[in-house]
Specification:
The strands form three sheets. Strands 1-11-12-10-9-4-5-8 form an eight-stranded mixed sheet, sandwiched between helices. The chain contains nine helices and twelve strands.
């Protein structure tokens, strides 16, 4: 990341039959059969990503759900285009802008949306097919989430993961998994926590929430700094355009723009995103 400004912070269901869906963009899901319970094969497992070879200098993006990276870490995706690998944990979902719908409809739609958008941004993507909070009726097992990254190889220079400013259980689980993975890498990559959007944009005092998270993370991550990564007008327009390709989700453009303008003032830019990074 090359932020334009930084502020140091120290110590601180049943589905009906449907036609087959082809494999998507070299690594999506593949619909198999036409039974009432669709099955999805995942050509790009962690072991297959390792076999393909991850760039010696590369970036790991960890996302709780489809859309989190584009909403919250677009500037990082753009800066690390061509060398980024995204892992999306909870893509089995029932949540849509139309309400709660069968997961066999929502899951392929949300997965397809994410695949198309991240492919356009030249980010390699894999999905872990875990059930999100709209599907689960049991407590999340953090150890199970953490174990999903076991075996992922690559000389990553950066790891991006959620700050969990919303306190959402899925975001907290991914943040915990990211920290554990970072520690297992000898703390060598630079870990950066992106501000969760649109949650942060809905808060009256997001700065207070960020400071709270910084204090929490300082205990395990050491010295952290708050950084503002700029986006010019054209880059931000592209972010908004891509955000609307998540057709199953609500339109957050007004919230995203208002929040990004406020952050842009902190670094003399038209727009910006906020990250908390280890020094």
């Amino acid at each position: 990341m090359t932020p334009c400004a930084a502020s140091p912070r120290v110590s601180s269901q049943t589905a009906t039959d449907s036609p087959p869906i082809p494999s998507l963009l070299n690594g999506g899901y593949l619909y198999q059969g036409t039974s009432s319970f669709p099955k999805f094969a995942m050509p790009k497992s962690i072991s297959q990503l390792n076999e393909d070879g991850i760039h010696a200098i590369s970036t790991l993006f960890l996302a709780p759900h489809p859309d989190d990276l584009v909403y919250s870490a677009f500037s990082a995706l753009v800066q690390h285009t061509g060398v980024g690998t995204a892992v999306v944990f909870f893509n089995i979902s029932r949540f849509t802008k139309w309400g709660i719908l069968p997961k066999y409809f929502v899951t392929p739609m949300r997965t397809l949306e994410e695949r198309i958008i991240l492919t356009r941004l030249r980010v390699r993507t894999m999905f872990l097919w875990l059930e999100d909070s709209s599907v689960r009726n049991y407590p999340i097992e953090c150890q199970r989430v953490t174990s999903q990254l076991k075996g992922l190889q690559g000389a990553f220079r950066y790891i991006f993961c959620p700050l969990s400013i919303s306190g959402h259980s899925d975001h907290l689980a991914v943040r915990s998994a990211a920290i554990d993975y970072w520690i297992s890498c000898g703390r060598k990559p630079r870990i950066c926590f992106y501000e969760d959007l649109p949650y942060a944009a809905k808060m009256k005092e997001p700065e207070v929430e960020v400071e709270t998270r910084v204090r929490e993370l300082t205990r395990c991550c050491g010295h952290l700094s708050v950084q503002y990564n700029p986006l010019n007008v054209n880059q931000f327009r592209r972010k908004l355009a891509l955000s609307r390709l998540y057709l199953t989700q609500n339109d957050h453009r007004t919230l995203l723009e208002k929040h990004a303008k406020g952050l842009g003032k902190k670094c003399r830019s038209a727009y910006a995103e906020r990250y908390v990074c280890c020094s």
